[in-house]
Write a structure and sequence with these properties.
Length: about 425
């Protein structure tokens, strides 16, 4: 019998390997690699483009066809025959479908493929939520090649036009009357006809028209475990998001909404996940709070985007990425309660269209009390594209403090220190 002071018996079993689906354009690489290192879990990073180091590190790097989930699953199965996989994790909307397909093929924990597809496609998502009684805005789907004047005549006002896919509010435009509708349609059509969406299929040929819901907007970060939603954080978005475009800036948690409102928001998200059939893994939801209660605006079967997850810490300095990996691998979950301090992130607004030449004031911004870091992700010479056509922020500011008000104030103060030198397209 082992005494209490004896070391635990050694296991000859290899540590469980996790397959991380990581598009080459993502910001998330470092956070997940560090989380896997802290867990001691072997990590295989799969991307849609081959790495020059893949031949030298065949167990750590893998190329999968993200555009064809079934093919990607076959590729993953072949890889797993040599390097067994215990869990698969997606970091964005597209790879969530690939992850579900791989999980089904390999018999791993994950969501059904149909549920992942519903979470990815805004029209499919809204149909299922409406049929399940989830409170969502009234909507209709239109063809992008339809006569815009005819569509405008049938639209409710104010309304919001949005593509069936895309993220970070890209292509989302408010219209208050038929004239604004036609102008918004012209902008959205131009976005969907861009070369990057050529050949994307049916979703790029349609768009949604839905009621604009007034009221403050919040974002919920959660983790599904056997269908049960665990709320990890509820973020306030203190800047009004009333249009015509919907550029997100500041996220601050904990929310300052009343406890009853927060409970209603969480219940709405739980209903939405059940309506789509989601059972496992991270979810990120956007909601509006109005006099009628919580309205579900968007739901994604993935974690919060960009570098925003750095604002979240749990238990003894556990990151969101570590929670996600632990869940996927079936490892014990530590406390899912967020730290006691308030935290926030500013997704730095695009200062204007043009080529970035320089950013000054970064060190000054870092010296603002409560600021933890200022990360400029855009590089000199990069073209900056504002919403609604653009979809990438030039950087992020993080703060932590005793209360949400102080955190929000620090983020705004740090942002005021930054000055972007942008050469306009006409220059």
């Amino acid at each position: 019998m082992r005494t209490p002071t004896s070391p635990p018996p050694r296991s000859n079993l290899p540590a469980p390997r996790v397959l991380l689906l990581l598009p080459t354009s993502t910001y998330r690489t470092t956070a997940f690699v560090e989380a896997a290192r802290r867990l001691g879990a072997p990590l295989t990073v799969a991307s849609e483009r081959p790495s020059t180091f893949e031949a030298a590190q065949p167990e750590s790097l893998l190329t999968l066809d993200f555009a064809d989930p079934e093919r990607a699953a076959r590729q993953a199965k072949q890889f797993a025959s040599q390097y067994p996989i215990a869990g698969v994790v997606a970091v964005d909307d597209d790879t969530a479908i690939v992850a579900a397909t791989i999980a089904k093929t390999l018999g791993l924990k994950g969501n059904a493929v149909g549920a992942a597809i519903a979470a990815r496609d805004k029209h499919v998502q809204r149909v299922q939520m409406r049929d399940a009684g989830v409170r969502i805005p009234r909507f209709q789907v239109r063809g992008i090649d339809e006569n815009p004047e005819a569509a405008a005549a049938e639209a409710p006002y104010p309304c919001v036009l949005k593509p069936l896919r895309l993220s970070a509010s890209r292509g989302v435009i408010r219209a208050n009357d038929p004239t604004e509708f036609v102008a918004a349609h012209t902008r959205l059509k131009r976005i969907l006809e861009a070369p990057e969406f050529a050949g994307c299929g049916d979703w790029a040929a349609k768009f949604l028209v839905e009621d604009f819901v007034p009221g403050p907007e919040v974002a919920l970060e959660g983790l599904l475990v056997q269908g049960q939603l665990h709320v990890l954080a509820l973020f306030d978005k203190p800047d009004p998001l009333d249009g015509p475009f919907f550029e997100e800036t500041i996220y601050v948690t904990p929310s300052r909404l009343p406890d009853a409102a927060q409970a209603s928001i969480a219940a709405c998200v739980q209903e939405a996940t059940r309506a789509l059939g989601l059972l496992e893994g991270p979810v990120h939801a956007e909601l509006r709070w109005s006099k009628d209660g919580a309205w579900l605006i968007e739901l994604a079967a993935r974690p919060i985007g960009g570098r925003c997850s750095a604002a979240l810490r749990f238990g003894a300095d556990v990151t969101l990425e570590e929670l996600i990996l632990r869940h996927a691998l079936g490892m014990p979950l530590p406390s899912l309660e967020r730290e006691h301090q308030a935290a926030g992130v500013m997704m730095i607004p695009v200062p204007g269209a043009g080529v970035l030449r320089d950013v000054v004031g970064i060190e000054e911004a870092k010296r603002v009390p409560l600021i933890e870091s200022v990360e400029i992700t855009a590089h000199r010479g990069q073209e900056l594209v504002p919403l609604p056509a653009g979809g990438r922020y030039p950087g992020f500011i993080f703060a932590r403090g005793e209360n949400p008000e102080a955190v929000e104030g620090a983020l705004r103060a740090a942002h005021r220190c930054l000055r972007f030198d942008v050469e306009s397209p006409a220059a």
